[in-house]
Structure formats: C-alpha cells, structure tokens
Design goal:
- The protein has helices spanning 2-20, 36-52, 94-111, 119-136, 149-159, 180-196, 201-216, 232-240, 281-293, 330-338, 391-397, 409-412, and strands spanning 78-79, 223-225, 228-230, 247-251, 260-262, 276-278, 298-302, 315-316, 346-355, 363-368, 386-390, 398-404.
- 38% of the residues lie in helices and 13% in strands.
- It has one domain: Cathepsin B, Chain A.
- The longest helix is centred in the N-terminal third of the chain and has 19 residues, at 2-20.
- The chain is globular, with a radius of gyration of 30 Å.
- The strands form two sheets. Strands 1, 4, 5, 6, 7, 8, 9, 10, 11 and 12 form a ten-stranded mixed sheet that branches.
- The protein has 417 residues and is an alpha+beta fold.
C-alpha cells in the first residue's frame, strides 16, 4: 500500500507539474531552407552537380576596336528631334519601340508636338490579330513576340493609339516590361486550341485578351488630354494628326524583282505583307543618306550579330577579315540573307549622321535603341541607349526601313503599278 501511495503521489506531482508548464505553444512561421538537410546535405549535392554540369563558356571571335579612334559620342552627330531612349525590358518588342520612337519624331517634325505614345497598346492589339490569323489559318500562322515596323502603323490604322500616360503596360510597380510568362501562357493556350480543333475565333481572341489583361492591363477606350476626351482613333487623327498610310517600307534584297512591291520573306512578317518597295542597293543607301540630311528619320531593321558589332564600344562596322569594304554589294548582301547569317533580328531608330569621320567619304549613323545591349555604360551618359553604325554596316546588314512617303516621293513614282 505504501509503495502504491508513493507512486500515486509521484503521478499527482507530475500532473501538477504538467499543468504548471503548458504545452499549448503558439504557431511560428519558419522559412524553408534552414537546417542540416538544406544547409549541409543539399548544399553539397548542388555544389557537386553544378561542377558536373559546368560547360565551356560561350566564345565568339569579334573585331578588336580597342585601339581605334571611334565616333561613339552622341554630340558628334547632327540629329533630328527624338524622345529620350527607352528600354523594351524583357520583351521581344523592338519592332514596336523603334517604330513608335520614329512616329513620335514624325509628330514633332510635322506638328512640333512632343508626345509619348504607348508601345504596349499596339503590342496588345498585334497579339490579338496574330491570334485571329492563327485561328483562320488553322494554326498555320506564326505566333511570336516579333513583328515588323509596318505592323505598328497597321495597328494604328485598325485600333488607334494611346498616350503612354493612359496605358503603360506596367503593373505591380514594375519599371521594366517582361512578357515571358504572358507569352508562354498564350502559346500554351493556342497549342491546346490547335490540338482540340477549337477554332472559335471569338472565344480564342477573348481568351488571349483576358490573358493579356492580367499581365499588362486592359487598354483604354478613352482618355483625357488637356481637358478633352479622346478615343484611340481620334487620338491618332485629331491629336497626333498623322495618317498611318503615309508611312512606307523600303527594302533592298536581290531575291525579289527591283522596282516592284514585294513580300519581305521573314518569319516576323507573319501576315505576309507584300507592300515593301524593293530597290537596288545603291538607291537604298542614297535614300538614307539624303533623307536624314533633310530631317527625316526612319525605323531601320536587320542583323546585329556580326563580329564588328560590339556592345562595349557601341559601334558597328564591317571588318576586313569579314569582307573588304569595296566588295560589299548586292550579291554579298543577298548571300548573307540567303544563308541566314543576316537575319531580321532587331529594329532601331536612325536619328542622326556624321559625315566623313574616317576620311573615306562615308557616313556614320546615330542609332537610338531600346534593347539592353546599348546600355552597358553609365546610365547618366549621353551615349546610354545608342549605337553608332558605319555606313558599310548598314549597307551589308540592315535590310529595310520605315519612312514617311514624302522623303521618297520621287522613288515611289518609279514603281510599276
């Protein structure tokens, strides 16, 4: 009995002690990633895997420009008016940023108005039209991030435009555009449409709009400027006072007949537009040289992957080890386009020129750019966001440009009807 009594007292004491020290703790949030597994085991696993997966760094041969005297200062150039450089961020929208910058300069040239027009408004409707054609062609139409300069004027004619203040396309406090997740979701959806033969145009375009509304916002149907209400179409017609039909595409490639309007056969011409005015190379270069001197800028596109295109000097030229200057002609240009060493991979805005810097009678051109490659210097530098193109680089590698028809009216008269 005595032993049992002691045990009972001990149990009671333990119970009393348990009541004094409560086990009802509060919930705490611990971040995943701490502890022996994460900090020791997994760290070792990942470190070894990283070493095993290591690849040779990517190397390419480039032109050594380090000891060259280069005209890579903006103040050397005679320029047209243009807005400050703007980044396209992480989006394949150079076609729109370059051509919209050009349009802004044209508004100033014609009406002395300084305007900032939304690029993403046009990007939004371009995706809608890509999706529409995807349905109508039963999936046999490219749906990508890229396009051509004349896509912008096409969208302005169809849908109008909006000031950047009314529609920036930047949500959640973003400073830079990023369209990867949006594009991935739209692409996955269109793949399912094709797999299911769900060719309902209204349903598809509505879904594409809904995806974009989530990522970049819903484009406005009206907005106020200086106390007056505008729609996107009246903004173009009455405020910007431009006619999208006044802008034309000049092309020079030998695979199609010269002095005819032809199709530019590149993937980004996804709607197979055949309105490009195809001219011989000497005419093409003469247009550029004369137009910029008369105050006409242009949105220009072509290839920026050459050995003489350097992002540290921001200069683009053709080195002799590629092809000597005197050999750059229509055949050399077409050869590179045909074997795809020249591609239609980037659009920019030509805004100025410099005469005879190299004492060779050739121009250098000041190129306003929206990509990250031209932004490897001091953000406060006047050169931030610009490239400097030698005339030979334009001659060999820049395939076409968008320009106001008044700059080329004598050229357009020569085309076959």
């Amino acid at each position: 009995m005595k032993q049992i009594l002691i045990t009972g007292i001990a149990v009671a004491a333990l119970a009393t002690s348990g009541m004094a020290q409560s086990h009802k703790g509060k919930i705490e949030v611990h971040e995943k990633g701490k502890g022996y597994y994460y900090e020791t085991i997994l760290k070792d696993v990942n470190a070894v895997n990283h070493e095993l997966d290591k690849k040779e760094p990517y190397k390419r041969f480039v032109m050594d420009q380090s000891k060259m005297k280069l005209p890579n200062k903006v103040d050397l150039y005679k320029t047209i008016w243009a807005n400050q450089v703007e980044s396209q961020g992480n989006g394949g929208t150079c076609w729109c940023f370059s051509t919209m910058s050009f349009i802004e300069s044209e508004v100033y040239r014609m009406h002395k108005k300084e305007v900032e027009i939304s690029e993403i408004f046009s990007v939004y409707w371009e995706y809608v039209e890509k999706a529409r054609r995807f349905v109508r062609e039963r999936g046999n139409s490219m749906f990508g991030q890229g396009s051509e300069g004349n896509a912008l004027t096409r969208m302005m004619k169809m849908y109008g435009a909006a000031p950047k203040s009314a529609y920036s396309g930047l949500l959640h406090g973003r400073k830079f555009h990023t369209h990867d997740a949006m594009f991935k979701e739209m692409t996955a959806y269109l793949k399912s449409v094709k797999a299911d033969n769900a060719w309902n145009e209204e349903a598809v375009t509505s879904t594409i709009k809904a995806i974009m509304n989530h990522y970049i916002g819903t484009p406005p149907t009206s907005f106020m400027i200086d106390g007056k209400e505008y729609t996107p179409k009246s903004y173009v017609k009455d405020y910007l006072q431009i006619n999208p039909d006044d802008f034309v595409e000049i092309l020079s490639y030998k695979q199609e007949p010269y002095w005819q309007q032809v199709e530019y056969k590149v993937p980004d011409n996804w709607w197979h537009n055949a309105d490009y005015y195809n001219v011989p190379l000497d005419v093409y270069m003469d247009i550029i040289k004369k137009a910029i001197r008369k105050g006409y800028g242009m949105s220009i596109g072509g290839d920026v992957s050459e050995a003489g295109f350097l992002r540290d000097t921001q200069c683009a030229m053709i080195p002799d080890f590629d092809i000597p200057s005197e050999y750059i002609n229509e055949d050399a240009r077409q050869f590179r386009f045909s074997n795809e060493t020249t591609t239609d991979d980037h659009g920019m805005h030509l805004v100025g020129y410099l005469e005879n810097f190299d004492k060779d009678g050739k121009d250098w051109y000041l190129i306003k750019d929206s990509s990250s490659g031209s932004r490897n210097n001091d953000p406060n530098s006047p050169e931030f966001g610009y490239y400097f193109f030698h005339e030979d680089y334009v001659k060999l590698k820049m395939m076409g440009f968008t320009i106001h028809k008044d700059a080329v009216k004598d050229i357009l008269k020569k085309f076959k009807k």
